[in-house]
């Protein structure tokens, strides 16, 4: 039996009928054509499908679409504001934090949550914070640099205001 | 700015990936598309007595179910291999058929037996559960060595003792045996270079689309070489007309070799679409990928190296059993032979070398090229021998290497270096990379720290590895003589548009390597135009004339050179037009910074004006064709030979056996560098994969051929907190035989790093005395047991 669900995705309200067993990641990809969120495994280990649900990083393959009913969802497509890239998107470009790009959306969304929790992480904290996300291309070296770049950028204006 | 070569230009392809607008195969949805689910054998070896699909056919949404019997009856061929390696006695390589779906028996866990096609992915999967198969399980064999023993189960009846080929290279065995007898010391290692799973983050996917009205076929696929896939599909498997077949490899989420090969699912989707007159999509899930993507490595080797009293290498003798899996994948026979045996000279002057390889069928998934392909196996063997020999002879491992290195040569003034194993190295200064690495490590200081640490009971270790690889595999005539069934050139087309903007079509395929940036740098630099005026197009056989694809670190060395050849033609033609417009002779012109200038004057004409003239040829030189569009095939003169020196520093926990990789230093020479940022990224990624093999990864088949760690729950992938930040540097020794002087950077990191890490752990364990060798991956359990033994 299809179930009617409503959620806010990247700032827009959507209402759809889904099968109860539909995973949130398939709902985003198949029903909303938001194909920036990727499926890299079937055991919730790789993190390619990471998105934000009510501000928390969630592996969208671990959650049913119906469980997100009433939630606020942000995917990689919703990260840029007014055509301006998010500091993490910018950081990944500046520091060559991506190669094939497949893990990148999940990696960035995980990093958004990481910097929300800890705006000034050490290298070790960044590495530990990315434990749930695999990248097979970069050896993580430049991903760490990318997140450091973004942290610096995010913190700069705050400091300016404080002073 | 038009000076782009050597600059860390930010990647032009990044924006789409960073904003979720990449377009991978599974992202594509075509009108009326159906979904396929492949039913696979749960057994490594089993006869199919009967398949009953009647219940499944009645399920909601099911459109059609095909089995191996339907494939067999349709008369199409199986998947071919692209390389032939015959037996030493001249007998032809055993090449049993590899059907798209099997009808008689399954030969590995994951062998496809039926395909369910339904309106949705879920319906296809639900129906697959309702197919009843009467299996008769047969004894299976997973180990290459066991498979060759008398009485072992036969994977294919036509291959006795499961042997596909046997092969030998180098000096005659008697000469090597004789040299070994004169050795003061012989170091012997017997080990398995374990099987690893490539694990590109995007799993394989394929969409077949047949359009009845036009008779055209389109295949969207996760491929590193769409044109080769098209050729194999048309000429060997399905017999469909190549000029009506379009193969598109859109954005591809990593390959590492595993997406070079033509897989059964690609042909199967086209075959199904042709019958059903609707597009059909198959997307592998990760569990399926573990079972069905071609794996890498899996060599069982015995390697012996003989030294004189002073530590000079006298001889090397290697015997390898290479696991090929159940069928021959596209390049499978080439990897353990021509990409492995030929690299056993390494960087050393070893005067006598003999390598003997047996290629073996087993009840496991196919084994083929994985990042490095044969060269990591050769390097592992040599470099483990070197560190072990140094330990046994009580010599310094760095000194032992420096003593045995081939002297520097540039390949121009000094000739290339002829090895004992068929290759001629292009250029190199091998001492320089190791010396630089030692400097970065602070070697003497480290040894002091290590001695102090040992006094405190800490297990600190350092491991070395130096390597050479053969990249840009070529030339066609040579590889043809060695058994390749394809040419190994590349195609590069440069089309200058009337407005002076430039479209470049390359047969190389980027799946993370950043060709859209690097190739554009070359073009913009040579033509003296802004980078933004250049667009690189790849991955679509309807746009790109032909291509051999991306693997073996070949894209820039071979594909880039093909583009340069076309740029030369553009500039040559442009000069004729410019001379006409400037009323000067061609010899009096020079081309720089995007314009032709009459030498010694200020008379010039810009590239864009020449382009426009070529397309609006009102005032035009006689005998010159309009337009500005050139295509070139570049077939290199030789392989290219990147090399380097890697050093690992580890600390082993005495109580748990856990290895902490503290530092990793890599000094590589990949020839000239177009984009240092991208080259560094390639090195980093390679290092992580090589370190992964040393410490974490390994596909495990049990004795019954069951893959027992076929998921990310069980197969350990390197994570961010398993690795340190890498310390890398390079030397630059240009390749003397291609126009860019480049050698290739894609595999270097993966080739050098594995033995360095294992050597470091063995060094850390030195206080326990010289013990028998450790098998990879060096899990805490293995290391702990080693310490207790």
Automatic annotation (TrEMBL), chain A:
Keywords: 2Fe-2S, Iron, Iron-sulfur, Metal-binding, Oxidoreductase. GO terms for molecular function: 2 iron, 2 sulfur cluster binding; metal ion binding; oxidoreductase activity. The keyword Transferase does not apply. Pfam families: Fer2, Fer2_2. Gene3D superfamilies: 3.10.20.30, [2Fe-2S]-binding domain (1.10.150.120). Residues 3-79 form the 2Fe-2S ferredoxin-type domain. Coiled coil: none annotated. InterPro entries: 2Fe-2S-bd (IPR002888), 2Fe-2S-bd_dom_sf (IPR036884), 2Fe-2S_ferredoxin-like_sf (IPR036010), 2Fe-2S_ferredoxin-type (IPR001041), Beta-grasp_dom_sf (IPR012675), Diverse_Oxidoreductases (IPR051452). This is Carbon monoxide dehydrogenase.
TrEMBL record, chain B:
It comes from the Bacteria. One of its GO terms (molecular function) is oxidoreductase activity. Keywords: Molybdenum, Oxidoreductase. Residues 19-139 form the Aldehyde oxidase/xanthine dehydrogenase a/b hammerhead domain. This is Carbon monoxide dehydrogenase. It comes from Phaeodactylibacter xiamenensis.
């Amino acid at each position: 039996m299809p179930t009617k669900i409503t959620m806010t995705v990247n700032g827009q309200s959507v209402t759809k009928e889904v099968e109860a067993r539909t995973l949130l990641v398939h709902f985003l990809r198949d029903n909303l054509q938001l194909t920036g969120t990727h499926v890299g495994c079937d055991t919730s280990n790789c993190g390619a499908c990471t998105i934000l649900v009510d501000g928390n990083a969630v592996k969208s393959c671990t959650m049913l679409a119906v469980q997100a009913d009433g939630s606020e969802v942000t995917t990689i497509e919703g990260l840029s504001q007014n055509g301006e890239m998010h500091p993490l998107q910018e950081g990944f470009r500046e520091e060559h934090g991506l190669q094939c790009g497949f893990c990148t959306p999940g990696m960035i969304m995980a990093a958004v949550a990481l910097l929300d929790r800890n705006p000034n992480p050490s290298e070790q904290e960044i590495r530990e914070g990315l434990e749930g996300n695999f990248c097979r291309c970069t050896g993580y070296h430049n991903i760490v640099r990318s997140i450091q770049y973004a942290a610096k950028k995010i913190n700069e204006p705050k400091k300016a205001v404080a002073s | 700015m038009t000076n782009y070569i050597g600059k860390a230009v930010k990647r032009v392809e990044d924006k789409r990936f960073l904003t979720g607008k990449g377009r991978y195969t599974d992202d594509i949805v075509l009108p009326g598309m159906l979904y396929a689910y492949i039913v696979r054998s749960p057994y490594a070896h089993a006869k199919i007595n009967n398949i009953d699909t009647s219940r499944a056919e009645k399920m909601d949404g099911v459109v059609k179910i095909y089995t191996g019997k339907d494939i067999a009856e349709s008369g199409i061929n199986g998947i071919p291999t692209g390389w032939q390696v015959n037996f030493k006695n001249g007998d032809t390589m055993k090449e049993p058929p590899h059907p798209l779906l099997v009808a008689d028996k399954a030969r590995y866990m994951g062998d496809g037996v039926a395909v369910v096609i339904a309106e949705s992915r879920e319906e296809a999967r639900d129906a697959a559960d309702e197919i009843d198969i009467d299996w008769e399980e047969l004894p299976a064999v997973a180990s290459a060595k066991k498979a060759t023993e008398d009485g072992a189960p036969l994977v294919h009846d036509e291959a006795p003792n499961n042997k596909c080929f046997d092969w030998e290279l180098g000096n005659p065995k008697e000469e090597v045996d004789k040299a070994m007898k004169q050795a003061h010391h012989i170091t012997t290692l017997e080990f398995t270079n374990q099987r690893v799973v490539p694990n590109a983050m995007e799993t394989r996917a394929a969409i077949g689309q047949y359009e009845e009205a036009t008779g055209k076929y389109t295949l969207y696929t996760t491929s590193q070489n769409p044109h080769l896939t098209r050729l194999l599909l048309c000429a060997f498997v399905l017999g469909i007309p190549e000029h009506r077949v379009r193969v598109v490899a859109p954005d591809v989420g990593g390959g590492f070799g595993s997406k070079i090969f033509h897989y059964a699912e690609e042909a199967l989707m086209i075959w199904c679409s042709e019958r059903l007159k609707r597009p059909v999509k198959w997307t592998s899930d990760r569990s399926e990928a573990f079972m069905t993507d071609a794996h890498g490595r899996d060599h069982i080797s015995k390697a012996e190296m003989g030294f004189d009293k002073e530590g000079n290498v006298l001889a090397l003798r290697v015997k390898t059993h290479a696991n090929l899996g159940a069928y021959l994948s596209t390049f499978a026979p080439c990897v353990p032979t021509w990409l492995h045996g030929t690299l056993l000279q390494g960087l050393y002057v070893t005067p006598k070398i003999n390598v003997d390889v047996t290629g073996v069928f087993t009840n496991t998934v196919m084994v083929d090229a994985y990042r490095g392909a044969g060269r990591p196996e050769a390097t592992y063997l040599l470099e483990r021998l070197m560190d072990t020999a140094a330990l046994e002879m009580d010599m310094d491992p760095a000194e032992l290497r420096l003593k045995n290195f081939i002297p520097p040569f540039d390949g121009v003034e000094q000739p290339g270096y002829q090895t004992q194993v068929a290759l001629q190295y292009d250029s190199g200064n091998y001492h320089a990379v190791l010396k630089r690495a030692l400097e970065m490590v602070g070697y003497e200081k480290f040894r002091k720290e290590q001695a102090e640490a040992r006094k405190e009971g800490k297990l600190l270790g350092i491991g070395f590895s130096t390597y050479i690889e053969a990249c840009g595999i070529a030339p066609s005539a040579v590889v043809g003589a060695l058994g390749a069934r394809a040419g190994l050139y590349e195609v590069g087309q440069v089309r200058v548009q009337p407005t002076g903007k430039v479209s470049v079509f390359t047969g190389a395929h980027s799946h993370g390597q950043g060709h859209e940036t690097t190739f554009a740098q070359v073009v913009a630099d040579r033509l003296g135009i802004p980078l933004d005026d250049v667009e690189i197009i790849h991955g679509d056989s309807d746009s790109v004339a032909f291509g051999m694809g991306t693997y073996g670190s070949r894209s820039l060395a071979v594909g880039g050179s093909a583009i340069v050849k076309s740029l030369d033609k553009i500039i040559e033609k442009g000069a004729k037009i410019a001379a006409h417009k400037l009323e000067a002779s061609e010899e009096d012109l020079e081309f720089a910074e995007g314009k032709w200038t009459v030498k010694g004057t200020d008379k010039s004409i810009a590239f864009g004006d020449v382009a426009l003239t070529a397309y609006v040829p009102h005032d035009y030189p006689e005998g010159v064709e309009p337009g500005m569009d050139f295509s070139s095939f570049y077939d290199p003169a030789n392989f290219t030979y990147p090399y380097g020196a890697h050093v690992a520093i580890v600390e082993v926990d005495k109580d748990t056996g856990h290895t902490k990789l503290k530092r990793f230093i890599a000094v590589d020479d990949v020839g000239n560098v177009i984009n240092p940022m991208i080259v560094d990224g390639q090195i980093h990624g390679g290092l992580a994969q090589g370190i992964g093999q040393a410490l974490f990864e390994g596909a495990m088949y049990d004795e019954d051929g069951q893959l027992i760690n076929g998921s990310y729950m069980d197969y350990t992938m390197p994570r961010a907190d398993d690795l340190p930040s890498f310390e890398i540097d390079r030397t630059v020794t240009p390749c003397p035989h291609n126009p860019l002087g480049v050698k290739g950077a894609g595999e270097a990191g993966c080739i050098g790093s594995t033995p360095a890490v294992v050597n470091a752990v063995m060094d850390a364990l030195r206080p326990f005395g010289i013990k028998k060798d450790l098998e990879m991956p060096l899990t805490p359990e293995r290391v702990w047991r080693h310490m207790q033994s």
